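Quick one, T. Sequence first:
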Amino acid sequence: MASPIQATPNPFLDQLHGKQSKIYVHCVHRAQTYEKCLWLCRRKGRRVVAWDIPLEDIEQGVINLKSQNRWWSRYLFYNFVGVEHIKFLETRRDGQAFLVIANKVNNANAITERQRSIDLISAFDGDSGCGVDIKGIRHDDKRRCDNWYEDDFVSTCRVKDYAKRKQGLENLRWMPAMLDYYWQNGLGEEGVRFLNDSGFVLAYNYLSEDCYQDAENPYGKSIDALELVSGWRIQRLLWTILVAIVSDFCIVAVATLLSDAISVGLAVGSYAVGIEALLLALLTMLSAVLP
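Structure tokens:
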């Protein structure tokens, strides 16, 4: 039998926890093995689905993104061509993923809001030993300085907080270019650190609960994520057309050489052009229709 102390709920301890989010069960299960994750979204017709990649598996997970598509999509002209910053509200489970409501982030508005938050703490004492040294290191948080202050129930150095927000503003300004760079060239340790510093890597414990204004909102908190953007692979399409043109010239030359008649070579070449045009049109149509 449980003791009276164990059986009696602690109201003060209960107040330390917010309202369970819609992905509470998933996050609690994940938190037993992992600490943080990155969320990815993609559109399937009119639906938007989201799934998480643990921090330890982010680099390999992004490399394997193309496996999210059917095998034939790797050979078509329409596939994933990049990522963009979005926010989503979780709704309900859909197999291994979640059906979500996604909204593209307006980078200009985000920069304006971040600049406003920086202006609120821009006044500080620059002669109190809180500056950055030649190696880019500031003083330890354990040492309280003249610029120490309380912000959202967190004690921190105003100078360090100011520098952190300025770096966040810089990340926002470079966000589209950086996301495109890491998509094209792979993440690596620097890419993972960029995603972490930019707020894309979130703790499962944070995602499991909605607190304060998020708990008041009937839709819960909005989660920063990366949406996979699909588009036409122009380079692959142009290479395919170039190969077809070169092969047509080769077919005409070989047919003319074997028959000793230019008319026969041109006739064979015209048939080859027709077949290639039909195949190209078929591939283009399948690229647009198949998921």
